[in-house]
């Protein structure tokens, strides 16, 4: 198993541009989490899905951020328009839903908004 | 909702000494407590976890203890080595009908000096 896959690994864009981050879950997992990590704010949960359904999006900073799960194995996080303060490392993680199951992180996408 | 406090924020130890990181949580319904290690530029990876029906768990040089009454849990690393240098995160999770999410502490930077 290749583990959680994220793309791109690095993204540099200019303020105002649309950014789309992608995540492929581990086969068989049905919970998906998007996190943002910065030095100032640490590891923040943005949104999570169970069986393709968004369960908690209270961590999404504002309407510029949106996330989708078009199928059971894939998710996107979109920022439109992007701002310099969105610069961070974005991780997705997957897990088997329910109970106390290990959560596996992807390698992350380092986003820089100029 | 759940709140997880982690201390200390930084910890320096001499190689071979022990390191202890402590976390407290607020939600008495939390029943799963993982610890993640994140090396510089890498993803967080699970190193050990404990469930609420167990008071202590050990895996080679790493151990975790849980005190449900006091709502705190600790990570113990013995015989520290330079490769233990990393950021360590504790987390807590409780099961809800609609799903469960990990709430992370702010992290501890561990430096092992050789």
List keywords for this structure.
heterodimer, A: 114 residues, mainly beta, seven-stranded mixed sheet, four-stranded antiparallel sheet, 11 strands, 0% helix, B: 114 residues, six-stranded mixed sheet, five-stranded antiparallel sheet, 54% strand, globular
What does this entry look like structurally?
The complex is a heterodimer of chains A (114) and B (114). Chain A is an all-beta fold. Chain A contains no helices and eleven strands. In chain A, the strands form two sheets. In chain A, strands 2, 4, 5, 6, 9, 10 and 11 form a seven-stranded mixed sheet that branches. Chain A starts with a strand and ends with a strand. Chain B has 114 residues and is mostly beta strands. Chain B has no helices and eleven strands. Chain B has strands spanning 4-7, 10-14, 19-25, 32-38, 45-51, 56-59, 62-67, 72-77, 86-92, 103-104, 108-113. In chain B, the strands form two sheets. In chain B, strands 2, 4, 5, 9, 10 and 11 form a six-stranded mixed sheet that branches. In chain B, strands 1-3-8-7-6 form a five-stranded antiparallel sheet, with no helix packed on it. In chain B, strand 4 and strand 5 (45-51) form a beta hairpin. Chain B is globular. Chains A and B meet through strand 5 and strand 10 of A and strand 5 and strand 10 of B.
């Amino acid at each position: 198993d290749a583990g959680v896959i994220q793309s791109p690994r690095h993204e540099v864009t200019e303020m105002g541009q649309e950014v789309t981050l992608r995540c492929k879950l581990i086969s068989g997992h049905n919970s998906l989490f998007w996190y943002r990590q910065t030095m100032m704010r640490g590891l923040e949960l943005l949104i999570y899905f169970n069986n393709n359904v968004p369960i908690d999006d209270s961590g999404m900073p504002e309407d510029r951020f949106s996330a989708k799960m078009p199928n059971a194995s894939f998710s996107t996080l979109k920022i439109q328009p992007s701002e310099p303060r969105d610069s961070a490392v974005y991780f997705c993680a997957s897990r088997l839903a329910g109970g106390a199951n290990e959560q596996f992180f992807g390698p992350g996408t380092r986003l820089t908004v100029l | 909702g759940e709140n997880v406090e982690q201390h200390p924020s930084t910890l320096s130890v001499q190689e071979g000494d022990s390191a202890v990181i402590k976390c407290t949580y607020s939600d008495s319904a939390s029943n799963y407590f993982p610890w993640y290690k994140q090396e510089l530029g890498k993803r967080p990876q699970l190193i050990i976890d404990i469930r609420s029906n167990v008071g202590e768990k050990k895996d080679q040089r790493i151990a975790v203890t849980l005190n449900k009454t006091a709502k705190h849990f600790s990570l113990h690393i013995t015989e520290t080595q330079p490769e233990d240098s990393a950021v360590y995160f504790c987390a807590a999770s409780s099961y809800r009908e609609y799903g469960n999410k990990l709430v992370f502490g702010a992290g501890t930077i561990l430096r092992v000096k050789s």
